[in-house]
Design brief:
The protein has about 425 residues and is of the alpha+beta class. About 55% of the residues lie in helices and about 20% in strands. Strands 8-10-11-13-12 form a five-stranded mixed β-sheet, covered by helices on one side. Strands 1-2-3 form a three-stranded antiparallel β-sheet. Helix 6 links the parallel strand 4 and strand 5 (about 110-115). Bound molecules: adenosine-5'-triphosphate and magnesium ion.
């Protein structure tokens, strides 16, 4: 150490073999010493390392002046080192240090405790502290994010189930009407068949009477008039035209039922991920079938559907969007009213406008209607999730939704979805 003044001190290039990721580990290993030490070389040859504290001691000791050109210590020591209070949060301390530390860094920083000297702090420790904190924070953020995602998809699912639940009641009613007359018609056909079968029996008896060797004329006469009576009764009860109509009505009713069932299947398909090129007019029509029971007694629906290019979408999700908007529109109409659904394309997007003649949305609510749980409906009637889920589905399809409303006049929602790119 006596010859320290003759030795040159070279700062090892710290970046050569140390990556940021290594810093944490180095801190715990003996190699860490190198980090806070300076290699001592003579004629370009390494002699060993000297700790930074040692150098500092020397600087402050008798060789210090010589190394620094015999200047007083105050000239090369930092007169006002940075002060960091021990109870400062690590991020705040780091901010303070990185903002105020002077380059080249001659020392790290001094930690104070209530204004008294507490110790020396090192930027590397601080960075490591920050890094540890960031890692923990990141972990907990990632955890909350995945929890949030899970509960969001649960919410979407439960809202879908709720809106489906509402619709099931309506659909049951829709099926009930054709089912009612199909049932009636079948009952009628059975009654006709019973009469025809009896008539047929009477004819068979008449034939065997005619074929019998001892022909009983009186009995045959009675049989004949009974048949005559039955035939008259039959044609009075079941006219031919009516019977034909009965069968075609029955087939029509069955067709209606199978329509509703296939729309329902299409509507509630659990193919959330399935994406195909769809004509949105089909979605409009199939949603109107499903919502018919809700609509038919109070709302006149006017469809103005243009010719549309295909849209790449998950049809069951778009049906859910349309059902939410149509249901809201019906709910906004207090007594009787109109819903107008128009579709058109501008070459880039397909637009669906659902306009109602309902009570409208006050300006102060317009910015809130897409928030989850915002509802003006009585407790138990609305969850306030319909529009927030609608918004999410449209955003997932790279589309957008706009709303315009006038209190007392009505509301219009416009859903715009990008058209499918040509293959
Ligand atoms: N067409 C509309 N006319 C008037 N108000 C509307 C219309 N659509 C939505 N709103 C308002 O926006 C609110 C939020 O709608 P949203 O569909 O998110 O929930 P909700 O209908 O109240 O409940 P949910 O859909 O879960 O049954 C409604 O409560 C209503 O105040
Ligand atoms: Mg709603």
């Amino acid at each position: 150490m006596e010859n320290i003044a003759e030795l040159s001190i070279a700062v090892e290039p710290l970046t050569s073999d140390i990556t940021i990721a290594d810093v944490g580990d180095l801190f715990l290993q003996p190699a860490y010493d190198r980090f806070l030490s300076l290699p001592v070389v003579r004629d370009g040859e390494p002699l060993g390392v000297i700790s930074r504290y040692h150098v500092q001691r020397i600087l402050m000791g008798r060789y210090g002046r010589e190394l620094q050109g015999a200047k007083a210590v105050k000239h090369f020591m930092n007169n006002s080192p940075l002060l960091v209070s021990v109870d400062r949060p690590v991020e705040e301390a780091s901010h303070h240090i990185t903002r105020n530390i002077a380059f080249p860094i001659t020392e790290d920083f001094i930690i104070t405790d209530g204004g008294n000297y507490h110790g020396v702090g090192f930027v590397i420790n601080l960075l490591r502290g920050l890094e540890d904190k960031l890692i923990t924070k990141n972990k907990s953020l990632a955890q909350s994010f995945s929890q949030l995602q899970a509960s969001q998809s649960q919410l979407v699912q439960s809202e879908k189930m709720a809106s489906l639940g509402q619709m099931v009641a309506g659909v049951a009613h829709e099926i009930n009407t054709p089912l009612g007359y199909v049932h009636n018609n079948v009952e009628m056909a059975r009654a006709a068949y019973d009469q025809l079968a009896t008539l047929n029996e009477k004819y068979e008896q008449l034939i065997s009477m005619l074929q019998s060797p001892d022909l009983d004329e009186r009995a045959m006469q009675t049989q004949f008039s009974e048949i005559q009576e039955m035939r008259e009764e039959f044609s009075n009860t079941f006219q031919h035209d009516e019977m034909r109509g009965l069968f075609s009505d029955t087939l029509y009713g069955l067709g209606q039922i199978s329509d509703i069932v296939s729309n329902l299947k299409n509507f509630s398909r659990l193919d959330q991920a399935m994406v195909s090129n769809i004509d949105l007019n089909q979605c409009v029509d199939s949603t109107l079938v499903i919502a018919n029971n809700l609509i038919k007694h109070k709302v006149e629906v006017i469809r103005d559907l243009g010719v549309l290019p295909k849209v790449r979408c998950a049809p069951s999700q778009i049906n859910q969007v349309l059902l939410n908007l149509i249901t809201n529109a019906v709910h906004a109409i207090e007594d009787r009213g109109r819903i107008m659904i128009s579709t058109f394309s501008d070459g880039q997007f397909v637009h669906i406008i659902i306009r109602d003649s309902g009570k409208g949305i006050p300006a102060e609510n317009l910015s809130k209607i897409f928030d989850p749980f915002f509802t003006t409906k009585p407790i138990g009637e609305g969850t306030g999730l319909g529009l927030s889920i609608t918004f999410k589905i449209i955003r997932d399809h790279q589309g957008y939704i706009r709303v315009k409303s006038r209190v007392g006049k009505g509301t219009a929602f416009c859903v715009s979805l990008p058209i499918a790119e040509q293959p």
